[in-house]
Amino acid sequence: MAPVNLEQFYDADPRRRHSEELEFGSDWRYRGARTQVSWVEETGEVYVMRDPLGHLETELFGEESVDPVGVDELTVEVIGTVAGPDAIRAVMSGWEKAMPSGDDGIAWVRDRIANAATELNDPPASPSRDLPS
Known about the structure:
With 133 residues, the chain is an alpha+beta fold.
């Protein structure tokens, strides 16, 4: 699915708007912008929501702030599907360590989703094999 704005994403499938979602962090970096990764229970979709103006700014004493944007400026891209909450938790095991991994941490997410069948054998209780020690 090509990126669309947030409202278009929810309007395209009514199940999305009323579904529970699991969030896997909102401070990913993707193409220089702050990005959130979420999973929609009703559809099994894993999506990234890119905040084009939501750059994290480090202030004088190390505090971070985010520039706010309107809902119509948030772009959503579905990057794959994973059936069931246990499966998505297993596939995304280690996301907390991967999220701060640089400007394209989303590449890690894409790889995990693309290889979901293999990642299901990488239990959440174990360190993810594809993360640096």
